[in-house]
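Can't paste images in this forum, so I'm doing it all in text. The chain is below; anyone willing to post the predicted structure tokens underneath?
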Amino acid sequence: MAQPSLSVVMPCLNEERNVEEAVRSTLRALDRFGIPGEVIVVNDGSRDKTAEVAGRLASQDPRVRTISHSRPQGIGASFWDGARSAGMDYVTMIPGDNENVPEELLTYFSLTRDVDMVVPFVYNVEVRSLFRRILSSFYRLIINFSFGTNLNYTNGTVIYNRRALQEIELGSKGFFYQTELLVRLIRAGYLYAEVPYFLKGRKVGTTKAVSLKSLRAVAEGYLRLVWDVHVARRAGRAGGRLHPGSATAKRIRHVETPS
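Text version of the structure:
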């Protein structure tokens, strides 16, 4: 059986000092695990030299390519643009802030044989500020209560089966997109595995995740999803129909087929 392949979407907003190492560490991780893959750097309207750095990296390695927005559209829009152009079997998002350890994530890539989502949660939480840890705890409680999920973390670098993504209509363009994707896919019936994940923390620059603009976009996305799930009864375009090529559908067929 051929080794499954992976598209890594890397959204960047003013990450000229971080994106090069983020790309190179991702390529090293793909090489270490022997995973055929690509890195799609999405420059989300950066005002610095992010686009220039990304273009240089793309000229040096055929596995790297770029997408550019003329103005910032949000991390969700950046992910979705990258995912639509992805050519591999699976898709994940690793930010261009060089905060993540790609080898940590790809350690669990083999789980994609049995599930359609590999969902990491940060276990070295001390790398986050106390305010962000408290905010994350409240956020997790609200999401799990609102949508009947039991997730440890909903904003990580999830690995998705690209076939399953094709069944989902995403509404959020900002930081809520990860939560929305997880909720819609889980409610559609796709299987997932949660895994512990080490985060090294950002060394240069500041996070955009807890800005007032980002928090407002998260609140708006949450209210839209509550409406879709509980009022309009729209869990996702899949409507409970699994993509026949998904790991979940294959497992169901295996169980239901008489031996």
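The chain has nine helices and seven strands. The chain has a mean pLDDT of 91.
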